[in-house]
Amino acid sequence: MALEIDNSLRAYIPKGPSIRAGVITLDDDYPAGGWPVTFADFQFGKSLYTLMLGQASGYVIEYDPTQGTIRAYAPGSVAADGAHDHTGSVSAELDHGHNIYREAGWTHAAASPVFCATVELDATPEGNGVYLKYDSKSGQHYLCANNAVSTEDEKIDFTNGVFLNVVHDADAATGVSVLIDRSDTGDERLEADLTAYNGGKDVFVATCQPGYYVKIRHDDGGGVPALVMDDTGHELNANMGDEGDVGVWAVYRYFVAEDAGGHDHDITAAIDHDHSDDAPFGEVAEHFANLDGVEVIFFASGQ
Questions:
Q1: Distances in whole angstroms, Cα of residue 268 to Cα of each of 9, 234, 301
Q2: Judging by beta carbons within 10 Å of its beta carbon (0-12, 13-18, 19+), is residue 165 exposed, middle or buried?
Q3: SS3 per-residue string spanning 111-133
Q4: Would you tell me how many other CB atoms lie within 10 Å of the CB of residue 169?
Q5: Whole-angstrom Cα distance, residue 62 to residue 73?
Q6: Domain boundaries in the chain?
Q7: How far is residue 108's CA from residue 121's CA, in Å, rounded to a whole number?
Q8: How far from the centroid of its chain's Cα atoms is residue 139's Cα?
Q9: Residue 163: DSSP 8-state
Q10: How far apart, in whole angstroms, are the C-alpha atoms of residue 132 and residue 247?
Q11: How far apart are CA 214 and CA 217, in angstroms?
Q12: Half-sphere CA count of 153, side-chain side, radius 13 A
């Protein structure tokens, strides 16, 4: 038989050694001087720096770096050798930086928006108002309405395969009412009083197209009509008088990375055990059957 080594944990530390941790399962064929092991047994490429082993089932298991073997000691095998400690440690420095990402802005094709949805003129809009809410689990803002007819989410077509989801929510009115101001440009037309919602900051609602959002602009002035979800005609509408239909644009948000500085982490691990005078330990004999199946936790570093 041979040792079974399970390298269940692998880590790589910049400017430092690689780390392995896991379980070694011993067998019943204990060769003189211990079981031979090499760096390859722990999935290192060329060197084994440190190998620390835990006690298991009353045995003390140690690594002999001179011989390159794992040796086992059992209590009462030889005369007392005096109490002493064995301590192994590995220390590595992890040096890394942090980047933060801030929004650099948003853009659209102003003359001919790539993604545009139409809000229909309707003196008596059908359906129910559209509201803004925040999902704390996903960290996303979303639009919702009480779609009492369809009783399901409605998808607003922004053309070119891009859709904005308006979630069916019987309690939609507990959110913030979304209004439409046709006098603004297409990327600024949707607005809401976000003072109580988030302190008066503009928000962006994601479409199905990664990177593209519909902007909800903060405006506490009011005086413009509410946006309505017509879940019969499957479209947005609003009572905008006789001024005609308008478009709402999706915008592309882009971000830049900023270096927030770096710092070091020191990682140290050690194992310390004692051989007491009243329970002397000695190396076990060959073919020591009681070692078969004994599991030993290990921590190794190498390259």
A1: 16, 62, 11
A2: middle
A3: CCCCCEEEEEECCCCCCEECEEE
A4: 19
A5: 8
A6: 4-96+262-302, 109-249
A7: 24
A8: 13
A9: E
A10: 19
A11: 10
A12: 10
To the question of pTM greater than 0.85 for the whole model, the response is no
Could you give the CA distance from residue 290 to residue 293 in angstroms, rounded to a whole number? 8
Give the residues across from 229 on adjacent strands: 128, 236
283's CB contacts (< 8 A; 6+ apart) are 34, 71, 72, 73, 74, 77, 78
pLDDT tens-place values along the chain, 303 residues long: 467 888 777 766 666 688 888 888 888 777 878 889 999 988 888 888 889 888 776 778 888 988 999 888 776 544 434 445 555 555 555 555 555 545 545 565 444 456 888 999 888 899 999 999 999 988 999 999 999 999 999 999 998 888 999 999 999 999 999 999 988 887 889 999 999 999 999 999 999 988 889 999 999 988 899 999 999 999 999 998 777 898 998 888 766 555 656 555 555 555 555 544 444 455 555 445 567 788 888 888 888
The two structure tokens encoding residue 35: 């079981």
Tokens encoding 119: 């809000």
Cβ count near 272 (within 10 Å): 10
